[in-house]
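Worked example 3 (structure in, sequence out).
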C-alpha cells in the first residue's frame, strides 16, 4: 500500500508545456485518428502527457537511475524512443487535474491522490500489442487550462503565456489524395498585423511549418508546398477573421476569433505516485465505462478505461532500486 511519503514530486516549468505543444503540432495527423481534433481537452491531455514524460526522463538522469532507450512499439513513432527500467518498457500514464477546485484541493492535501484511481485507456494500452512484462507508471499533473474565450482575452491583456491553436478539418489535415495543395493564400481581417504559423506535411509526409505576418486585409502566399495542412497558430488573441484558401482543394476555411482555443497547460506540480507491471494491473483492474465521473481533465470519461485505486500501486522507489540492481548484475 502506498503512503504520501512514497509520492515523488517533480518541478514544473513552462518549457515542459512548450515541448508537449511541439509534440502535438507535429503528430496531429496521427493523434486525430484516435482523438477528435476538435476536442481540446484531449489535445491538452496529450500536451500534459509529453510534458510529464520529459520531466520524468530528466529526473532519471539527475538521480542517476539506470535506464535504457528502446524503440517505440508504435508504427507512427519510429523516430521516437521509449524508456526501459530494469529491462522492462515503461508506459507513463498521466492524469491531468485541471479544474481549479481540484487543483487547489490537491495543493494543500497531496495525500488525497491516494484516494484517486489510476486510469488506463483501453484503446491505447490495453488492447494494443504490448509485452506482459511492460510497466505502467502513474503520474498526476496539477495544471490549470483556459477553456473560455473571455479567459483567453484576459490572459492576452495580462501578458500571460498562451498558445492559440486551430486544427483544420479532415479534408485539409488528412486528404484522400496526396497531391500538392497549390499556392496557399492567407488573409486577415484583424485590426492589426498578426503572426500566424501554418503547420502541415510535404510530399514526403514530413512535418513542415512557416510563420507569416498578416497585415490587415492583405493577401499573403505561403512559401511551402503543402500536401496537408494540420493546424494554424496565431500569436495573440485576434479581433477579426483569419482565412486560408487552397486553389486545388477549392476550399476556404474562415476562422472566427472565438474558434481559436488555448492549448497551453499552466502546469504547477507533477507527482509520480506508483507503478505496476502491466500483467498485474490488467488482472486486478476493473472496467470504467464512458461517462463516469473522475478527477481528470473535464471530469467525466469519454472512452473506456480500466481503473485501480492509486493506493494499491507499488512505490516508484522500488522500481528504481530494481533498475539499479539490474544494471549491476
Amino acid at each position: 500500500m502506498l503512503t504520501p511519503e512514497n509520492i515523488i514530486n517533480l518541478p514544473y516549468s513552462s518549457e515542459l508545456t512548450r515541448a508537449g505543444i511541439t509534440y502535438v503540432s507535429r503528430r496531429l495527423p496521427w493523434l486525430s485518428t484516435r482523438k477528435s481534433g476538435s476536442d481540446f481537452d484531449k489535445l491538452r491531455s496529450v500536451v500534459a502527457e509529453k510534458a510529464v514524460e520529459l520531466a520524468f526522463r530528466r529526473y532519471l538522469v539527475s538521480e542517476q537511475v539506470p535506464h535504457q532507450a528502446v524503440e517505440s512499439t508504435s508504427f507512427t513513432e519510429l523516430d521516437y524512443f521509449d524508456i526501459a527500467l530494469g529491462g522492462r518498457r515503461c508506459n507513463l500514464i498521466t492524469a491531468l487535474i485541471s479544474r481549479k477546485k481540484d487543483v487547489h484541493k490537491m495543493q494543500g492535501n497531496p495525500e488525497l491522490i491516494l484516494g484517486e484511481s489510476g486510469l488506463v485507456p483501453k484503446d491505447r494500452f490495453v488492447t494494443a500489442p504490448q509485452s506482459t512484462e511492460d510497466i505502467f507508471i502513474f503520474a498526476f499533473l496539477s495544471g490549470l487550462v483556459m477553456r473560455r474565450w473571455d479567459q483567453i482575452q484576459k490572459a492576452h491583456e495580462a501578458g500571460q503565456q498562451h498558445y492559440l491553436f486551430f486544427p483544420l478539418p479532415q479534408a485539409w489535415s488528412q486528404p484522400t489524395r496526396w497531391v500538392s495543395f497549390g499556392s496557399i493564400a492567407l488573409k486577415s481581417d484583424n485590426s492589426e498585423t498578426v503572426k500566424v504559423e501554418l503547420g502541415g506535411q510535404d510530399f514526403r509526409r514530413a512535418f513542415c511549418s512557416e510563420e507569416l505576418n498578416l497585415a490587415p486585409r492583405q493577401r499573403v502566399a505561403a512559401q511551402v508546398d503543402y500536401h496537408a495542412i494540420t493546424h494554424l497558430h496565431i500569436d495573440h488573441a485576434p479581433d477579426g477573421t483569419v482565412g486560408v484558401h487552397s486553389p486545388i482543394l477549392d476550399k476556404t476555411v474562415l476562422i472566427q476569433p472565438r474558434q481559436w482555443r488555448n492549448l497551453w497547460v499552466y502546469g504547477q506540480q507533477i507527482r509520480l505516485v506508483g507503478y505496476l507491471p502491466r500483467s498485474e494491473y490488467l488482472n486486478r483492474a476493473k472496467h470504467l465505462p464512458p461517462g463516469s465521473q473522475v478527477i481528470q481533465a473535464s471530469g467525466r470519461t469519454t472512452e473506456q478505461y480500466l481503473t485501480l485505486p492509486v493506493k494499491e500501486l507499488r512505490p516508484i522507489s522500488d522500481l528504481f532500486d530494481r533498475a539499479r540492481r539490474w544494471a549491476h548484475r
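Notes: The helical segments are 14-34, 40-62, 100-108, 122-126, 149-157, 170-173, 278-284, 316-327. The longest strand covers residues 266-277.
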